Amino acid sequence: MQNLLEELYKTDIIVNKFHFRKVYLEDKSYQINGITQSGKTKLIKNYLLSLKKNSYLYIDCSDIRIEVDEVNSLLPTFCLTNKIDTLVLDNYTPSFNFVNVSQLIISSQIHYEIDFLKTLKLYPLDYEEFLAYEHKYDSTALNHFFQLGGFPSMHKINSDERYTYIQKSLKNTLDIQEFEILKLCAKMMGQKLSPFSIYERLKQTHKISKDKLYRCYENLDSKNYIHLVQKVNRPQATKKVYLCDISLKSALTSQKNFVRLFENMVYLELKKSDKNIYYDDGIDFYLPPTNEVILCMPFVDERTLFKKIEAIEAFIFTYNIKKITAVTMNNEGKISHPFSKIEMLPFDIWALGD
Q1: What's 101's DSSP letter?
Q2: Residue 227, Cβ neighbours under 10 Å: how many?
Q3: Which one, 63, 181, 242, 316, has the greatest CB density within 10 A?
Q4: Regarding beta strands 283-287 and 30-33, do their DSSP bridges make them parallel or antiparallel, or are they unpaired?
């Protein structure tokens, strides 16, 4: 293990064409949480390149050559002898011991309660981050975003291999039951879905206990592979399920539903703003702190929107809604209302303006 540590210490880190993200690292100790393919490793390596070569040690905890007990016993002395200031434990698991260094950085899909580490959540690319990968920003950029989704790696994967690449990545990081649940969530994206209904469906084709399924479902939620939206003032009501990235819909199911895909894309933009989000009957997303409603209506016109507003008048007055935004594909405009500001905004303008 001593030789392996020496090899890791001397190995040059290479990052091909890094695109800056909305989160970044400074000279603090961090815990970086994010799903597979969200860009955790590249974010870390790009930061390490800003440091002196002999001041850091990068260890990928998933490296099968590593014997954990030996590394744990050797690492404190190794870091002290080589004057390591920054230690990185990528793909961290609790079997690895921490070492007393100036800066510790760990990354994991799972969040651990570690007080002295600042937590950074890394999601797949949002639309603004995605545009940094585009050669030019024009009317084709949004369509390209629909095709590729938010995984940074999709920009270098051949178009005929993208879905199988996502499938393999998910199979390598999730257990069998989690993967099967995620497939069902992809089919039900943007709809109400309970763990019990998943169990009722999967038990017909898979051998799985209810307790095991509930644990797997909670794991997918806690690791942010799925996102659950609660009904306003109804915590016991069935939640709506959304995917961590829109590309999973096409990668995990043959079903097509552009409106649901669009709704999921809007949700992810809201999610990354750390806003409390709820749904209600006829209301896609309700944001209590700003008294705002977001409607996902890709092909709406003013007449259709006016009818929609009439249908949700009771909600508008009950919750004192001050602003209603209908997110569209292309249409833009406003309609008058005595109580709320109501406008239609194309997704790209809405997402970048936020």
Answers
A1: -
A2: 21
A3: 181
A4: unpaired
What pLDDT shows up at residue 354? 59
Record: fold of 2-121: Rossmann fold (3.40.50)
Q: Would you state the structure tokens that stand for residue 296, as one six-digit string?
A: 């996902």
What residue spans in the chain does CATH classification 3.40.50 cover? 2-121
Neighbours of 291 (CB within 10 A): 15
DSSP 30-99: EEEE--TTSSHHHHHHHHHTTS-GGGEEEEETT-TT--HHHHHHHHHHHHHHTT--EEEEET--TTSPP-
Range(s) within the chain of domains with CATH label 1.10.10.10 = 151-258
What is the sign of the dihedral through the CA atoms of 171, 200, 263 and 126? negative
In sequence order, the 6+-apart residues with CB closer than 8 A to the CB of 79 are: 57, 87, 99, 100, 101
Report which of 42, 51, 50, 44 is spatially closest to residue 133, judged by C-alpha positions.
42
Query: Residue 269: which H helix or E strand, with range?
Result: helix 258-271
Q: Determine the Cα–Cα distance for residues 37 and 157; give it in Å rounded to an integer.
A: 13
Closest CA to 2 of 100, 83, 81, 98: 81
pLDDT digits (tens, 9 = 90+) for 240-297: 999 999 999 999 999 989 999 999 999 999 998 888 999 999 999 999 999 999 999 9
Q: Supply the Cα-derived Rg of the chain in whole angstroms.
A: 23
Class of domain 151-258: mainly alpha
Confidence of residue 16 (pLDDT cuts 50, 70, 90): confident
